[in-house]
Amino acid sequence: MFALAACGSTTPEKAGNVTISYAIWDKNDQPTSQKVIDAFQKANPGITVKLEITPWDQYWTKLQTAASGGAAPDVFWMNSLNVRLYAKGGIIKPLDESAAQGLSPAVADGYRYDGKLYGLPFNVSIPALWYDRTMFDAAGVKYPTADWTWDDVKAAAKKLTNPAKKEFGILAPMWDQGGFYNTMIQAGGHVISADGKKSGFAEPGSIQGLQFWTDLIKEGSAPPAQVYADTDPLQLFQSGKYAMQYGGAWFASTYKSNPEVKARIDAAPLPKGPSQEGVILLGLANAVSAKGEHQEESAKFAAFVASAEAQKIISDGGGSSLSLRDGTQDGWFASFPEWHLKEVFDASLPYGVPYPVSLDTAKWQDVQNKLLTDAWSGKRPVADAAKDIAAQMDEILAKE
């Protein structure tokens, strides 16, 4: 697709007026995005921003098709899993580093390629330990705190499990961002080397981090793997049959929409691992088309979305997006006064680790997911699956 990219053509603007397109994938973010656009247009009356929304399941296909024809949106949402491919293909342009000053390096660094910044982050996704206070109270178990460790999780999950009532202490889906990537790091392992050339799955700490989850299933404190294939963990947790869940702080907007669930749950920071603290931080960014007619205006808009003014608008929207820039998050926390989300944020950000990526992350993640499926279902030992992942992942990385 990238070899076919060429300069697109657009209808000429009237003198002094410029229209740029802005593509996102989440309709829930439309109101907040429009408020950001309105603020930008007020400060820049000669620039009009046209918002385009494409559902997630169509977004990347549509974007690739448009980019192949040289007609990508002027500014569009980008994630760190894809940014290197788009940067290497010349689809997106390098951006001014000054616009990223003050943003968490654990998030911003995920958008660097060949020493240049190709995306300006505007939010951050932080994992959290969600728990059901009603189930904890019924079992006489103390609520999770910021001092909890893996041992605390395991002990609580065992006490909270009641086979007769089909109640489980914790959910253990095979999820990388909010689950096993975090525990791999906390056990002293890693997913990929710092230079992006070597897999870390075969490391003892990485294997231990994976086994944290499969052990919970094996011991009966978490339901078997098939349960997660049948029902979304978000729905399972809301059923009142599962006491704990490693999930995103961004789950808050979903849980708030259910009054019954909102009244009985809370959140705490991820428990500490046996080796170190560490949480995966992943934030969305805005990328700018390298083929667009109005690149200067597009870069200006991307920089505005990363600014304190826009970040505060995002935060005050109280949606799924937690703003990234320091000092702008209070509005978001105030939208969810029932829960300890500020505590989660404050305890997590200092130990943030970038989401692990390479040039073509999807290739080795496909291997990761296929081989871990057998480990999660108990068909083969975690260590064997992890070592096979490492071997195949190394071959993929060597070709990048």
Walk me through this protein's architecture.
The protein is α/β, with parallel strands linked by helices and 400 residues long. The protein has two domains: 2-123 and 283-328, Periplasmic binding protein-like II (D-Maltodextrin-Binding Protein, domain 2, 3-Layer(aba) Sandwich); 127-281 and 357-399, Periplasmic binding protein-like II (D-Maltodextrin-Binding Protein, domain 2, 3-Layer(aba) Sandwich), CATH 3.40.190. It has 18 helices and 14 strands. The strands form five sheets. The protein has a five-stranded mixed β-sheet. Strands 9-8-10 form a three-stranded antiparallel β-sheet. Helix 17 packs antiparallel against helix 18 (382-399). The longest helix is centred in the last third of the chain and has 18 residues, at 382-399. It is globular, with a radius of gyration of 22 Å. It starts with 17 loop residues before the first strand and ends with a helix.
Helical content band? 40-55%
Radius of gyration: 22 Å
Overall pLDDT score: 94
Instruction: Write the CATH homologous superfamily of the largest domain.
Output: Periplasmic binding protein-like II
The 3D shape can be described as: globular
Report, as a whole number of angstroms, the end-to-end distance. Answer: 17 Å
Number of strands: 14
β-strand amount: 5-15%
Strand order of the biggest β-sheet = 2-1-3-12-6
Architecture (CATH level 2) name of the largest domain: 3-Layer(aba) Sandwich
As for the CATH topology of the largest domain, it is D-Maltodextrin-Binding Protein, domain 2
What structural class do you assign from the helix and strand content?
alpha/beta
What's the story with the biggest beta sheet?
5 strands, mixed
Per DSSP, the total helix count is: 18
Give the uncertain stretches in residue-range form: 1-15
What is the CATH level 1 assignment of the largest domain?
Alpha Beta
How many structural domains can be distinguished in the coordinates? 2
